[in-house]
Design goal:
The N and C termini lie far apart (about 50 Å). The strands form three sheets. A four-stranded parallel sheet has the order 2-1-3-4, with helices on both faces. The chain contains twelve helices and eight strands. α8 packs parallel to α12 and α10 (about 225-235) packs across α11 (about 250-260). Helices cover about 45% and strands about 10% of the residues. The chain binds zinc ion. Zinc ion binds next to loops.
Length: about 300
């Protein structure tokens, strides 16, 4: 009998601790963050994103079933910068005490670098939260995610580090190609007018300029005064295209395009992925790839610039 227990002890000691511990349960919010956590974890943790793709992440209210998911979480990773306030408030109430809430945006940028604008006015106190369309900031998100996962599962730290480095290398290539594509657009056209204001950190990274975003701070349709202002601006700047969002179809933007004779491209995305689950395009990288092709082509560049990108 003693021999048996001794034997069992040796077998258990020989087992990697990863096989003995229950997988870490990580709860995330928007799809780009969920994807980044999955890339770093490489299947070693359970990841649940609570904001469904195609929903307005800025006004998303969690349901009782989301509360259940948060109760069971071992780690909560959000964007922060006021993007998911109702989820964070609920998480603070229901999560276990020791469970950390990691805010990627807050961990990535100092408050002096936050951007405020028409859709995210300083008076309201909510900065523009869309850091991730800037791929260099997304790389920093990945580093924060790696650290957060490793803190919870030090036994897997080297795996997380390896996965994060591999993924960051891909993001580095993507970042370079986006720069090349934007440089391929005639200089006078390197201007963005968007409906949803999600390119505020993208534009300065890639030598583009956001000259307007139409969606007001309450996510309603813009007022007639705002529309008139936008029409004047488009005529003055002579932009060849204005961009709508997949998640926020806007009849107002279509009307503005008609009025000004500019093209209306209703295809930009900031937190919903193209393609279907399982396809390589259905990812943060796939989304940025498509956004880059869309912007480049609509503003008079050659979208073939992205073809050098290799997903593998
Ligand atoms: Zn958004």
């Amino acid at each position: 009998m003693i021999k048996f227990f001794l034997g069992l002890g040796l077998i258990l000691a020989a087992f990697p601790t990863t096989l003995l511990a229950a997988p870490l349960k990580v709860v995330t919010t928007v799809a780009p963050i969920t994807d980044m956590v999955m890339q770093v974890s490489g299947g070693n943790v359970e990841v649940v994103g609570v904001i469904p793709q195609g929903r307005n992440s800025h006004t998303f209210e969690p349901s009782p079933s989301d509360a259940k998911i948060l109760v069971a979480a071992d780690l909560i990773i959000v964007n922060g910068l006021h993007l998911e306030t109702p989820i964070i408030n609920l998480a603070e109430k229901v999560k276990r005490k020791a469970v950390p809430i990691v805010k990627l945006g807050n961990a990535t940028l100092r408050s002096s670098d936050w951007k405020y604008d028409f859709s995210f006015p300083k008076e309201k106190g909510n900065p523009n939260p869309h850091l991730w369309p800037n791929v260099s900031l997304a790389q920093r998100y990945v580093s924060v995610i790696e650290k957060a996962l490793s803190k919870q599962r030090p036994d897997l730290a080297s795996t997380f580090e390896k996965n994060a480095n591999k993924y960051k290398k891909k993001l580095h290539k993507l970042d370079n190609l986006i720069s090349k594509c934007m440089a391929n657009i005639p200089p006078k056209n390197r201007k963005l007018i968007t409906y949803h204001d999600s390119f505020a950190y993208f534009a300065p990274r890639y030598a583009m300029k956001v000259i307007g975003a139409v969606q007001p701070a309450d996510f309603a349709e813009p007022s007639p005064k705002d529309v008139a202002r936008m029409i004047l601006q488009i005529r003055k700047e002579q932009v060849p295209a204005i961009f709508g969002s997949e998640v926020f179809p806007s009849t107002v933007l279509a009307q503005i395009a008609k009025e000004t004779g500019t093209k209306y491209i209703n295809k930009l995305r900031d937190d919903s992925f193209p393609g279907k689950p399982g396809e390589k395009e259905h990812s943060y990288i796939g989304m940025m790839y498509l956004n880059t092709e869309t912007i480049t082509e609509a503003l008079g560049g050659d979208k073939k610039c992205m073809r050098k990108f290799n997903y593998d």
